[in-house]
Amino acid sequence: MYEGLDSAIKAAMFWFEYDRGNYQQYNVGYATLSVPLLVTSFPFFDFIMDKGQPTDREIRHSGYFVGHYPFSKDPENIMTVICDVSKLGDLITHFDFLFDFLFEEIKLLRLNP
């Protein structure tokens, strides 16, 4: 799973940097939301490490992972969404609602600076 998390984070950061470079050269405002996403082919075990001891594991179809990632000299906390392919449609629906909400909020900001 580590390799998948690493790949998801690298891909999201690549596209974040690519978009930033393209839009900044035109000196225009823009908004971007880069979400690292790892899609698994099956449900996965979820557990928490508490004081070096794992908690009871649970089978999950979706979740998230937060960890430090060294993109620059100062590591940043990066959250990656993890989703089993059987629940991918649900995740897309939720992201659609999120993007619609953000789009409306940005429109309001442009109308009421």
Summarize this structure as a short list of keywords or feature phrases:
113 residues; alpha+beta; 3-stranded mixed sheet; 27% strand
Describe, in plain words, how this protein is organized in 3D:
With 113 residues, this protein is of the alpha+beta class. Helices cover 42% and strands 27% of the residues. The chain is built from two helices and seven strands; from the N terminus they run αβββββββα. The longest helix has 24 residues, at 88-111. The protein is globular. It starts with a helix and ends with a helix.
Provide a compact summary of the structure.
With about 110 residues, the chain is α+β, with helices and mostly antiparallel strands. Helices cover about 40% and strands about 25% of the residues.
Uncertain stretches: none
Helix content: 40-55%
Which strand order spans the largest sheet, edge to edge or round the barrel?
1-7-6
- What is the percentage of strand-forming residues? 25-35%
Radius of gyration: 17 Å
Shape: globular
> Biggest sheet, open or closed, and with what strands and sense?
3 strands, mixed
Count of helices?
A: 2
The overall average pLDDT, rounded, is 86
Order of helices and strands: HEEEEEEEH
How far the N terminus sits from the C terminus, by CA atoms, comes to 44 Å
- Helix-strand makeup class: alpha+beta
Annotation, overall tally of beta strands: 7
Annotate the secondary structure layout.
Elements: H1 2-24, E1 37-40, E2 44-46, E3 49-50, E4 53-54, E5 58-60, E6 62-69, E7 76-84, H2 88-111
Parallel strand pairs: 1-7
Antiparallel strand pairs: 2-5, 3-4, 6-7
